[in-house]
Amino acid sequence: MKVLVVDDDEKIVKVLVTYLTKEGYMTETAMDGRNAVEKVRQWEPDVVLLDVMLPELDGWEVCKEIRRDSDVPIIMLTARDAETDRVIGLEIGADDYVAKPFSPRELIARIRAILRRVKPEGRRDKALNVLSVGEIALHQHNHTLTVQGNPVELTPTEHKLLELFLTHPGQVLSRLQLIEKVQGYAFEGYERTVDSHIKNLRKKLGDSYGEPRYIKTVYGVGYKLTGDSRG
After folding, report:
1. Residue pLDDT, tens place only, 25-64
2. Is 210 exposed, middle or buried (0-12, 13-18, 19+ CB in 10 A)?
3. Which CATH superfamily does the domain covering 2-118 fall into?
4. pTM of the prediction?
5. Domain ranges in the chain?
């Protein structure tokens, strides 16, 4: 597996590359935003570790550029731990968010979890299914979504969320349940990050905020999928 490390702090880059290499990952590095975008297009990594404060292009802009033509998992790295910063990153397409200083072991665990979601094993029969509800269809064999027959791009986290809803139709899923099942772990205070992913997913499904057709909010609890789902 290939991991692109994007940070302008040489010490952090060195530590991350050392840990990743020990864990068997191939690594490439980029010290500024423009170079990061080029590396993603040329090297095609499996995961991008992306710092927010970068020269040339900041991490937000880099994330937007990557999302124009790639669904590679993106984990944002930043010293800014405000909830608004996490929400911004998730809303523009990041899959996860880690505040500095962070534990390299925790980061490795998150990378493993995100790769399990993107490249699941032992699910060949199920992967051939098409899960659907109303005018949306999730094609598991190639991880694509169609809405009214039109292809829609999903991030890996959005795909996993939608798959989870489609396989549990009508069941109320709490934020904690969603973050545990989708991310593969749960940390205190991270449940609310699900809201940003749900907001993005609703937008792509054509769900209105006031009267969503598919993903409904169960206030004080979480979310549930409505409609006649098939798979």
Report:
1. 899 999 999 999 999 999 999 999 999 889 989 998 999 9
2. exposed
3. Response regulator (3.40.50.2300)
4. 0.58
5. 2-118, 124-230
